[in-house]
Amino acid sequence: MAEDAEIDRLPVDLLAHIFLFLSSFTDLAQVSSVCRKWRQGVKQSLARKECLSFAGWKMDDVSIARLVAHAYSLKDLDISRSCWGCQITDDGLYRISLAKCISNLTSISLWGVTGITDKGVIQLVSRSTSLQHLNVGGTFITDESLFAIANSCPHLKTIVLWSCRHVTQSGLFFLVNKCKKLESINVWGMRVPVDCFISLLTISPALQIKPSDLRLNVETVSLWPIH
């Protein structure tokens, strides 16, 4: 009982600082259920977090959105899928897009999340106006998502489109033309002709097209004499 009394004397700010060191969402949930004061501490710790990664956690749309909603200082959001990862859907992306922190996000990863479509991605990126780094590799997005990204994310520096086989050269052209700060683009596994990448380099000569050997091949092709 004496130990409980000592713990009860800890201010909420100190509890929040302690809870920042908890990396397990399961632990946070258990701590939050202890009492109202500890629940406030968990909320304050979430409000201080600049990075949240749900990769590898079995989370649903509602749970992720609820945590993101309290992460007022969030800059980096990782919802990548792994063998045990979350299966977020368009509904989850919609819920997340309503969080206050979304306009301040600089990095979002949706790598390998196959349960989302253009509808959810467009909703999310349309409010992510500070976005600099985006990973949508391994998803089924189309040019519609790229159009939205290009129109909403003027500060975009890097984008991963790994194996996005429904994206065409039209989407890539629009993106590179619109995003003047774009430095790197990963196109591994895409169904786009080499000529497209030559054209992208014409638009933005400093653009890094990954994988790196692809850029080398593109530059080599571009030097071939035209007969």
TrEMBL record:
SUPFAM superfamilies named in the record: F-box domain, RNI-like
GO biological process terms held by the UniProt record: SCF-dependent proteasomal ubiquitin-dependent protein catabolic process
Gene Ontology CC entries for this record: SCF ubiquitin ligase complex
Pfam families found in the cross-reference section: DUF7885, F-box-like
Top-level division of the source organism's lineage: Eukaryota
Domain F-box: residue ranges: 10-51
PANTHER family attached to this UniProt entry: PARTNER OF PAIRED, ISOFORM B-RELATED
Name assigned to this protein: F-box domain-containing protein
Organism: Protea cynaroides
